[in-house]
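Support request, please re-run this one:
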Amino acid sequence: RVLVLLACLAYAAAQECGPLQGLKVKHEWAAVFSTGADRESFAREVFTEFFRMEPESRAKFSRVRGDNAWSPEFQAHALRVLGGLDMTISLLTERDLLTAALAHLKMQHAARDVTQAEFARFGEALAHVMFRRSTQHYDLDAWKACVGVITSGIIG
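Re-run finished. Output below.
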């Protein structure tokens, strides 16, 4: 019985975006989403992976030249999207502020008809790129849990 209880607690802890997981995600994000040209390259790589997984979603980005990930319009948009992600990641350990930020982002995304499936695919694309770019330990469980908090706050 004790072993089953410990296994359940370990599973629950692995699925949670608590303070420790939030700090890990923030630290890993800061290492990968650094500055300047690195951010542009990272953003382009995430969206290229996303469009590879979800090609029909590219049409939703026609206003910002989604047909050309190298265009200034698309690069600016990709950086805005990842800037929003950067903001929410930085607030993972400040839940009241995170809730307010997610409510604002929810209104923006509802107007653009972004689906749960698209958010899930974007999260997968982000995970793939984070894994490729991480030079240290990448805690996929923490990322899944914390990106899940962000996603459910915007879409859920």
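Residues 72-90 form the longest helix (19 residues). The chain is about 75% helix and 0% strand.
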